[in-house]
Amino acid sequence: MPRRRPAQQPCQLCERQVALTFHHLIPRKLHRRPRFYKRFNRNELNTGVWLCSPCHSGIHQLYDELTLGQQFSSLEALRGDEAIARHVRWVAKQRAGS
Fold first, then answer.
1. Neighbour-count burial of 57, counting CB atoms closer than 10 A to its CB (0-12 exposed, 13-18 middle, 19+ buried)
2. What whole-number distance in Å separates Cα of residue 53 and Cα of residue 5?
3. Is 62 within 8 Å of 30 (Cβ atoms)?
4. Secondary structure of the chain in the HEC alphabet?
5. From the centroid of its chain, how far is CA 43?
6. Where would a tag sit more exposed on the chain, N or C end, judged by fewer CB atoms within 10 A?
7. CB environment 8-29: b (16+ within 10 A), e (fewer)
8. How many angstroms separate the most distant Cα atoms in the chain?
9. Does residue 2 carry a pLDDT above 50?
10. What is the pLDDT of residue 6?
11. What's the predicted TM-score (pTM) here?
12. Predicted pLDDT at 95
């Protein structure tokens, strides 16, 4: 399911104006698990945020998909985590294109 990139929007975590990727708040790998498809409707499962590549890959390096689906299924939860916030602060200092 292709996602259209928002025009001229910053990364929703570090707020840099760079190319963005779509991050599913509940990883697609988990959509077929009863724990998730019974609790969330199809639109909720496909909800996500637009992130730059360093923020996106950093999130996946910090946490496995099950943890992301259970504990970080909202933008507020991502922003509220200290490990993610530390990574985002580092990314925000990087030059675009680095």
1. middle
2. 13
3. no
4. CCCCCCCCCCCCCCCCCCCEEEEECCCHHHCCCHHHHCCCCHHHHCCEEEEEHHHHHHHHHHCCHHHHHHHCCCHHHHHHCHHHHHHHHHHHHCCCCC
5. 16
6. N
7. eeebbbbebebebbbbbbbbee
8. 42
9. no
10. 65
11. 0.86
12. 85
Residue 20's Cβ-side half-sphere holds a number of Cα atoms within 13 Å equal to 22
**pLDDT single digits (tens) 28-68:** 999 999 999 899 999 999 999 999 999 999 999 999 999 99
**Model confidence at 96: pLDDT above 90:** no
Give the whole-angstrom CA distance, residue 90 versus residue 84: 10
Tokens standing for residue 91:
């990314």
Instruction: Find the Cα–Cα–Cα–Cα dihedral 95, 20, 12, 53, rounded to 10°.
Output: -60
**Contact criterion met (CB below 8 Å) for 30 and 36:** yes
Query: In the predicted model, is pLDDT for residue 10 greater than 90?
Result: yes
